[in-house]
Amino acid sequence: MRVFLTGASGFVGSSVVRQLLERDYQVRVLIRSTSPRTNLEGLDVERVEGDLLDSGSLIRACQGCRVFFHVAADYRLWARDPGMLHRTNVEGTRNALNAATENQVDRFVYTSSVATLGLNPDGRPADENTPSRLESMIGPYKRSKFEAEALVTDWVRARRLDAVIVNPSTPVGPRDVRPTPTGRLVRDAATGRMPAYVDTGLNIVHVDDVARGHLQALDRGRTGERYILGGENLALRDILEQVSRCAGRPGPRVRLPLRPLWPIALAAECWGRVSGQEPRLTRDALAMARKKMYFSSAKAESELGYGHRPAEAAIRDAVQWFLRQPVPQTENRVE
Fold this sequence. Notes:
This protein has 335 residues and is of the alpha/beta class. The chain has a domain of 220 residues: 3-Layer(aba) Sandwich (Rossmann fold), CATH 3.40.50.720. It is 40% helix and 15% strand. It has eleven helices and twelve strands. The strands form three sheets. It has a seven-stranded parallel beta sheet, sandwiched between helices. Strands 7-9-11 form a three-stranded mixed beta sheet. Helix 1 packs across helix 6, helix 2 crosses helix 3 and helix 7 crosses helix 11. The longest helix has 20 residues. It starts with a strand and ends in a 12-residue tail after the last helix.
């Protein structure tokens, strides 16, 4: 069976490609002219040049494919042009849905994010039914993913497409070339550039477990349903300590309060607008850090047969990979 995939050169997408090839699927991928090819080197895939924002190129690229994985996204927590995140993540998803519909694909698997989900005020892990709304989404990335997921849901309700949604939590692991915001955190901690931390928490999952969950959603996911593909809930301090231990460095010992960081984040954003460089600290990131972003994958485990390895294994693989790489010159663009 021939499968079409966007975002194949990126972190999650390249792992999905590997899982597909292991199961002997014929894989065709959409690649932008400016996308790095590093993650696809040596892989037996058919490459088609195109762009999410070029509807015609998408329609032509997925002709003859029975399955469509839409993994591509602009994953940045800050952008000098926030509208670019909306265009890529929302309008790009609309174009992908239209291309899949035009070519009458059998199934569409959409890679959303736990960013679209609500959080429980009492700190309990959230699930697919935890209430959320657009107004509560922090920053252009979360808003764009919320709107894109709503598009997929609307498409299913209109009976235009057989689609299933997966919501990865915080993937870490090898091949995070750009890297993602979380990958940059791991890289910085592993290289001794993370001397302090804030009191927050994340759900850490190995990128290869997320990729395997994509294929399980293809096989077993119910049309129109969404499934959290997560791992282990950990405080940020524990994550950084595990990273430091894997890298053979002392872990951070200083916990920073959030309030004094706000003017620093504002200044960093102002400099980012002038220089074009993404700030390492943003007001949106601080706003997100106010709550621990913990999630449950119980639904995916029950319905898809999903499972995940310990977070320590994911962190170890990520650290080992980052320590072998030069510091990327260009970070956090569309995957």
